[in-house]
Amino acid sequence: MMTTVAADFDHMELQQHYSSNDTVNNRWDDEWDNENSSARLFERSRIKALADEREAVQKKTFTKWVNSHLSRVSCRITDLYMDLRDGRMLIKLLEVLSGERLPKPTKGRMRIHCLENVDKALQFLKEQRVHLENMGSHDIVDGNHRLVLGLIWTIILRFQIQDISVETEDNKEKRSAKDALLLWCQMKTAGYPNVNIHNFTTSWRDGMAFNALIHKHRPDLIDFDKLKKSNAHHNLQNAFNLAEQHLGLTSLLDPEDISVDHPDEKSVITYVVTYYHYFSKMKALKVEGKRIGKVLDNAIETEKMVEKYESLASDLLEWIEQTIIILNNRKFANSLLGVQQQLQAFNTYRTVEKPPKFTEKGNLEVLLFTIQSKMRANNQKVYMPREGKLISDINKAWERLEKAEHERELALRTELIRQEKLEQLARRFDRKAAMRETWLSENQRLVSQDNFGFDLQAVEAATKKHEAIETDIAAYEERVQAVVSVAKELDVEHYHDIKRITARKDNVIRLWEYLLELLKARRQRLEMNLGLQRVFQEMLHIMDWMDEMKMLLLSQDYGKHLLGVEDLMQKHALVEADIAIQADRVKAVATNAQKFSINDDGYKPCDPQVILDRVSHLDFCYQELTQLAAERRARLEESRRLWKFFWDMAEEEGWIREKEQILSSLEHGKDLTGALRLLSQQRALEDEMTGRAGHLQQTITEGEAMVEAGHFAATKIQDRIADLKAQWAALEQLAAARKTRLEGALALHQFQADADDVDAWTLDALRIVSSGETGHDEFSTQALVRKHKDAAAEVASYRPVIDSLHEQAASLSPEEAESEEVRGRLAGIEERYREVSELTKLRKQALQDALALYKMFSEANACEVWIDEKEQWLNSMEIPEKLEDLEVVQHRFESLEPEMNNQASRVAVVNQIARQLTHNGHPSQKDIKTQQDQLNNRWSQFRDLLDQKKESLNSALGVQNYHLDCNETKSWIKEKTKVIESTQELGNDLTGVMALQRKLTGMERDLAAIEDKLGDLRGEAERLAEEHPDQAKAITGRLAEINAVWEEMKNTLKTREESLGEARKLQQFLRELDDFQSWLSRTQTAIASEDMPNTLTEAEKLMAQHEGIKNEIQNYEEDYQKMRDMGEMVTQGQTDSQYMFLRQRLQALDTGWNELHKMWENRQNLLSQSHAYQLFLRDTKQAEAFLNNQEYVLAHTEMPTTLEGAEAAIKKQEDFMTTMDANEDKINGVVEAGRRLASDGNINAEKILERVASIDDRHKKNREAAVELLMRLKDNRDLQKFLQDCQELSLWINEKMLTAQDLSYDEARNLHSKWLKHQAFMAELQSNKEWLDKIQKDGTLLVSEKPETDAVVKEKLSALHTMWAELESTTQTKAQCLFDANKAELFTQSCADLDKWLGGLEGQIQSDDYGKDLTSVNILLKKQQMLENQVEVRQREVVELQSQVKALGEEVKDAEEVDGRRQVVEKKFQELLDPLRRRRNFLVASREVYQFNRDVEDEILWVQERTPVATSTDHGHNLQTVQLLIKKNQTLQKEIQGHQPRIDDILERSASLLQDESSCAAVIRQRMADLQELWRQLREEAEQRHSRLEEAHKAQQYYFDAAEAEAWMSEQELYMMSEEKAKVRCSLCVQLELLEVRRMQEEEERLRKPPTPEPVVVLQEEPQQQQSGTITENGVPSDQDSPRDGVDGGELVNGVAERSSKEPSPGASPTSGRKSKTSQSSTLPSKNQDSSSLLEGLLHRKHELEAHNKKASNRSWHNVYCVINNQEVGFYKDSKAAAQGVPYHNEVPISLKEATCDIASEYKKKKHVFKLRLTDGNEYLFQAKDEEEMSTWIQAILNATTDHADVQGSHPGTPVSGRAQTLPATVTLTTESSPGKREKDKEKEKEKRFSLFKKKQ
C-alpha cells in the first residue's frame, strides 16, 4: 500500500512539473499578448531555453537508462522519441524490468500496429497500478516529447524507486520513494567533509557526493581526502568512470550535465538509484553469512519464551474469567450499609488486585512481540499462539473484564442511590402515615352522630351537610392513596424493613375503610329519612287530587242525544285514564312506604304503624274513587246504546230507499260498453249490499238484545226491525232480477262484437291467401314463403276463436240462441273459415314449387360457369418436360381435387331437385329436364378431360423421377467404392485391423440398402419402358450403368475382406491381455495401500472406495474368463517361444487374480474395524462432553442463602438430574459398544477398553455427586424456610413494638381513636400468636430431622420468644393507660361540646327577627323546629353526664371539680328552655297574620279575575256559541258556589284575629270589607248574565229550528217530484215515531233522577218571527258551525229537529213570504253551478298504492280524462264520457279532502310527474305534457282542497253553493247530520248521474 501511495505521489509530482511548464508557457503567452515589453521577452526566452536544456538532459539520461536495461536482451535505442513509437522496445523494456511476459507485439509498421503495441505496454502498466494521467497510445506514437519523458520517468518510479525504504535508528520511522533515497544518501555520506546532501539538484554539482557514496562502500577505489570541492568536473568524471569500470554502473550522466546552476533532478535521481540498488545488493550478501550463525541460538531461546508465554497467558485468562464471574454477580445486600461495604470491597479490588494483573498483561504482549520479532528476524515461521491464547483473545478477555468492572461499578452505585432513596421514602411514609391516622380518627367521631330533623326541609338540609362531609372525605382519598403508593413503591423496590411499612399501611387502610363504612351507614340512614318524608309529601298530593275527581264523578249529566253521550263518554274515558295512571302512582307510594314499615332490627326513621295507617287510608280513598268511575261509565253506556240504535236504523232505511230507485231502472245498455258499464255498476251495488248486510244484521241484533233486556221502547224497536227486514228483502229481489237482465244483454252484445271481429279477420285473410303472386326470382319467392308461413300459422291459431264463438252462442238464452240472426252468423263464419284454409294450402304448394325451380336453375348455372372456366384451363395446358414444371402442374391438379368434390355435390343437389319437381308434376317439367340433361353431359365431359390430363402428367413425372433415382444410386455406389479403397492405407497392426473392421461392418449395412434400391429401379425401368417405348433405350441404358458400378464395388469389397484373417484375432487378444494386466496391477496397488482413517469421514470414504473396487473386480470377472479361454485356444499346441512367453503371462495372470481377491478381503476387514473404532470415538467424545458438563455443574453449585434461591437451586438440580437421566442411555450405549468392539478383537481394543473404563467411572461418580448435592440442597431449603419465617416474625414483632411503645396518647385530642386502634392492635396480636407456635413446631421438627441445625434453630427460637414476651407486656401496659385516660377525656369533651352548643343556641333565641313575610316566617319556624329537636337530643346528653361523674369520682382525685362542671352545664341548659318556648309562640302568631293576608289577597285576585266574565256583554251570534256561553256561565256559578266555604273560612279567621286586637286590626277590617263587596258584586253579575243568556238561547234555538225545517223541505223537493210519494210519507211517519220515542225516554229520565232546570223552546209570535228573520239574514250559520250536540231544547234525528209532543210539526217555511222570489235558489242549485268544474283535461295516470303500505294490484299507466269538481276528482275515458257522466271503468270519484299533492321528485322514469296522496292511503301518479301543465294541475288540486277547508271554517253569514242565505246548504246539512256522511254523498252523487228524469230548469 505504501509503495502504491509513493508511486502515486511521485507521479503526481511529475505531472505537476510538466503542467507547471505548460502553465509558465501559457502565462508568458498571456503576458506577451497583454504587454509586449523587451524585458519580459528576454525573460521568457531564457526560461524556454532552460526548459529545453533540461529536456535534453532528461532525454540523454533516460536514453542511457533504457539502453542499460535493454542491453540484457541485446537491444538498443538511439532516439528516445522515435524508437519507442512502434511500441516494441517499450514492451521489451517492461519485460526486462518486471520479469514478466507481456503480449507478443503486433507485426507491421503501420500506425494502427504501433498504437496496438503501445496500448499493450500501457495496459500492463495499468495492471501494475501505475497511474497514467492524460496519456494515451497516440501520444507515444506521435512522439510527444513531454509525455514520452513522463512515461519513462513513471516507469523509473515504479520499477526503480518505489521499492526504496530506509529505517532510521532513532525513531524507527519508515520513508519511501524520493525521501527514502535522499535519506539513504544522507546516511551513507554522513561525516564526509564538503558533502551536504539535502536535495537531488545542487547538492551533487561538485561531484563530492558521488565519490562519497563510492568511498563509503568501496574505500579501496577512491582516496577521498585528495578530492577537492572546487574541481567539480574532475570529481564528477572520476566518480562516473569508477562506477562504470569497477561497479558496472552505466554512466547515465556527463559532468557537463551536473556542473550547472540547476541540474535536472530526475536525471540525478535516475543515476543515484543505480548506486542504491548496487550497494544494497552488496550489503545483503554480507548479512546472509551472519544470520546463519544466529538461527540455532535464536530457535532455542524462542522455544523457551513460547513456553513461558503460554503458561502466563493461561494463568492470566483463568484469573480474568473467575474475576468476570465475580463481577457479574448482581446479588447485592438489601440495605444501605451492606451496599456501602460492597462498594468499598470493589474499590479495594480496583486499587490492589487489578494493577498487578494489568502489568502482567503488558508483559505478555511484550513477550509475544519479542518472540515474533526474533522468529521474523530469523526468517522462521512466526509463532502464533493457539486459539484462545492470542494477544487479541487476552485483550478481548481484558475488555470483557473492564466491561464487567464498569457494569459492576454502575450497578453498585445505582444500588447505593436506590437504597438512599428508599431510606428517604421510608421516612416520608412514616410522617404521612401519622398525619393520616390522626385525621381519620377525628372524622370517625364526626360521622358517628345522627341529627337529621323531622320534616322534609330539615332532612334535605341534613343531606346537603352530609354531602359536604362526603366531598371532603372523598377529596382526602388521594392523600390516603399517596401513603399506599409510597408503601407500594417501597415494596416494589424490596425495602429491607417492608414488614413494618406494610403493617402501618394496612392500619391506615383499615382506618380509612372503617371511616367509609361509617359514612356509608350514615348516608343510608339519611336517605331513608329523606325517602320517607318524600313519600308522606306524595300522599298529601294524591289525596287532594282524589277529592277533585270525586266531585266530577258525582255529576248527574248523562247526555240528551248520541253526540252528547259520546262527548261525555270521551270525557269520562279521560277521567278513567287519569285514575288508572294514578293507580301506578298510588301503588308506587304504597310500595315505597312499605319499605319503611318493615319490622326488623335495622334502623327505622319512623314508627311503622303510622306509615301503615297512612297507606291504608290512601288505598281506601282510591278504591272508592274507582267504584264511582265504574258506576258512572255503566250509566253512560246504557244511554249511548239506545241512541246509537235509533241512529243506525234511520241510516239503513235511507240507504235502502236510495238503492231501490237505482235497481228499478229498465236500462240494459245499447252496446257492449254500455252493458259492461251497467253490469259493473250492478256488481258494485251487490258488493255494497253484501257489506251493508253485516252492518244491518248487527244493528238488528243490537235491537233484539235491547228488547230481550226489557227496554222501555221495546215495542217501537220491534216495529222498526220488522219494517227494515221487509225493505231489505224487497231490495234483494230487485237486485237479483236486474242482474239477470244485465247479464243476458251483456252476453248478446259480446257475441255480436266477437262475430264482427271474426268477419273482419276472415276478409283480411282471404285477401292475403288468394293472391297469385309467386315471385320473379329465388329471393322474392323466399320472402313470400316466409310471409305465407306466418299467415298459415295465424289461420291455424284462429280455430279456437271460432270455437269459442260457438260456445258463446250456446251460452245465450234459448230464444236468442235459436234466433235466425245468431245461427246465420255462425254458418257464414264457418264457411268463410273453410275457404280461407283451402286457399292457404294451395298457395303454400305454389310457392314451394316456384322456390324449388328457381333454386335448381341457380345451382345449374353456377356449375356450368365453373365447368367452363376449368375446361378452358385444361385445354390450354401442355405437359412440360422439366421436373420442376411438372411438379408445379401437379400441385395445381392437387388443389383442383377439393373443388371437384364441392361441384359434384352441387350437381347432385341439382339432380335431386329436378327429380322432385318432375315427380310432383311441375308445370315446367320440360325445361327442368332439359336443364338437368345439359348439366350432366357437361359434367361427364369435364371429368373425362381431367382424367386424361392427369394420366399424361403422372406418366411424365414417373420418367423424370426414374432418371433422378438412377443418378443418386450411382453416386452412392461410387462413394462406397472409394471408402473401401481408402482402407488400403491401414496397417497390419491391431489398431489398423480394428479400424478396417469397423469400417467394413458399417459398409455391409449400406450395401444391403443399395441392393434393395437396385431391385426397385429394375421394376420401375420395366414399367416405364412399356409405358414409353420411345424412351425405352435410354431407360435400360441407365440401369445397365448402375449394374456395372455395383459389380465393381462388390469385387473390391470381397478382395479387401480376404486380406484380413488370423492376424486380426491375434492382435486383438494381445491388446486385451495388456489392458487387463495393467488394470490388475493398478487395482492391486490400490488395495495394498496402508492408509488408515483418522476420522469417521475418512473411514466412510475409504469404505466406499473399497466397495467400488469390489464392484469393479466383479465387472472384470467375465473378461477374465474370456481372456483365459482365448489364451488357451491361442497357445494350444504351440511351441514357439513367443507362445511359451504368452503362456507364462497367462499363468501370472491367474496368480495375480487370486491374490487380488485375498488382498481385498484383508483390506475390507481392516477398514471395517477402523470404521467401527471411529464410530466409537465419535460417541466417546459426545459422552465425555456430557460428563465434562456434569462435572462442571456439580463442582460449581453453591448453597444459596435465601429461600427463593434454595428453591430455584433445587429446581435447577432436578432439571439437571433429568438431563443426566436422559443422557444416561447414550453413555451406557457408548460403554456397551466399546466393550463389544474389544471382545470382537478390534485392532484398537486396548485404547477402547481404557476409554470405556474412564467414561463408566466418571459417570458413576457424577451420579453419586448429583444425588448427594440434591439432598444437601433440600436440607438447605428447609433451613432457609425456617430462617425466613423467623425473620418475618421478628420484623413483624419489631414493627408492632414501635406501635406499642408509642406514648402519644398523652395528648387528649384523639384519645378515643387511639383507644380504638389499640383494641384492634391487641386483637391482631392475639391472632398472630399462632404464628409463633407454628414456627416453634417447625423448628423442633427441623432439629429432630437434621441435628446439625440444632444450634441455629435454638438461637432463633429463643430470640423470638424473648421478643414476643416483651411485646405482650408493653401492649398490656399501654392498654391500661389508654383506658384510664379515655374516661376523663370523654367527660371533658362532652362538657365542652354542650357548653359550646348552649352558647350558640342562646344567640339564636335572643334574635328579634320574627319574619317580614309568610316565606321568611315559615323558614324561621323550620329552624325553630330543628332547634327544638336538637334540644331534646342534648337533654339526654345532660342526663348521661351524671352517670359519668359517678364513674370518674372513684378514679379521679378532683371529683368535686368534675361535678361542678356538670352542674354549670345543666343550669345553663335549663335557663334556655323558657326563651325557646316564647320565641316559638311569637313565630306562630306572626305566621297566622301573614297567612291571613296572603289568603285575602288571593281571594280578591280570584274575584277580580272572574268579574270580567260575569259582566261580559257577549251573548253569542248563533246557537252553538250561546250554548257554549251558557255552559261557561254555569261553570262560573258552580265555581262561585264551590268557593263560598273558603270565603266563610277567611271571615271566621278574621274574626279570631280581630279578637286578639293586634296592631294590624284596622287593615284587616278594611281588607275584609273590600273582599265582601267584590264577592257580592260577582254573585249578582253571574245571576244577571245567566238570565240574559237564557233569553239569547231561546232566540237562537228558534232560528236554528226554522233553518232546519227549510233545509229539510228543500231536500225533499226532489222526492216530491217522483212517483214514490208513499215512501216519503212513510219516512215522515218514521220521524214522528222517533219523536215519540224521544219523548218517552225523557219521561223515563225525569222519573229516574231529580229534575234539572232546562231551557224550553217555545214558538214565538209573528212579530218575534219577523225579528228572527232579520237576524237570520245577518247571522244564521250553516250546520258546519252549529253541531247538534249543543241543542238542549230538542234533538236532531236523521237530519230533522225533534220537538216536544206539545209542539206541532212544522208546516210551511218561515220564509214562505220570500220564497216566490227565490224559489230556484232555495230549492236546487243552478245549472251553471252544477256543471262547473275547477279544471279538466287529459292526463297519464298510474295507481301506485291502494292502502297504506299496500301497492295497487294494477300499477300500469293509463290515459284518463280528469275533472276536478266540488273537492272531488272524477276519471273518464274522454271529454265525451265526462259530459255524459260515464266514469272510467266505473271508478267512483275520489275525494280531495285533506289530500296532498306535490311533484314526484323520486320518480325518475318519466318527466313532468306529480303525486296525489289521499287520506285513506290511496296514492296516484299523474304525468302532464309539460312543466306548465303540471304546475296548473297541482295548483288546481291544492285550491280544491283549500276551498273545502274554507267552507268548513267560513263565517256563518257567508252564502254557500248559491243557496238562499236564510238556509244552509243541503249537502252540508247531510254531511253533519250523520256519521255516514261520505257514503251518503257518494250515493246521492250516483243518484244524480244515473237518474232517468230531467232536472228542473
Task: Tag the structure with descriptive keywords.
1897 residues, disordered C terminus, two-stranded antiparallel ribbon, single chain, 76% helix, 3% strand, disordered N terminus, mainly alpha
Map the helices and strands:
Elements: H1 2-34, H2 38-70, H3 80-83, H4 88-98, H5 111-127, H6 137-141, H7 145-161, E1 165-167, E2 174-176, H8 177-188, H9 208-217, H10 232-246, H11 255-258, H12 265-327, H13 336-377, H14 391-446, H15 456-475, H16 477-492, H17 498-553, H18 562-595, H19 608-663, H20 672-708, H21 714-769, H22 778-797, H23 799-811, H24 814-817, H25 820-876, H26 883-919, H27 925-981, H28 990-1027, H29 1032-1058, H30 1062-1087, H31 1096-1115, H32 1117-1131, H33 1137-1195, H34 1203-1239, H35 1245-1300, H36 1311-1327, H37 1329-1345, H38 1350-1405, H39 1414-1449, H40 1455-1471, H41 1473-1510, H42 1519-1555, H43 1561-1617, H44 1621-1648, H45 1662-1675, E3 1692-1693, E4 1696-1697, H46 1712-1715, H47 1719-1723, H48 1727-1731, E5 1735-1747, E6 1750-1751, E7 1757-1765, E8 1768-1772, H49 1775-1780, E9 1790-1791, E10 1796-1799, E11 1809-1813, E12 1819-1823, H50 1827-1848, H51 1866-1873, H52 1877-1890
Antiparallel strand pairs: 1-2, 3-4, 5-6, 5-7, 5-12, 7-8, 8-9, 10-11, 11-12
Helix pairs in contact: 1-2, 1-7, 2-7, 2-12, 4-5, 7-12, 8-12, 9-10, 12-13, 12-14, 13-14, 14-16, 14-17, 15-17, 16-17, 17-18, 17-19, 17-35, 18-19, 19-20, 19-21, 19-52, 20-21, 21-23, 21-25, 22-25, 23-25, 25-26, 25-27, 26-27, 27-28, 27-29, 28-29, 28-30, 30-32, 30-33, 31-33, 32-33, 33-34, 33-35, ...
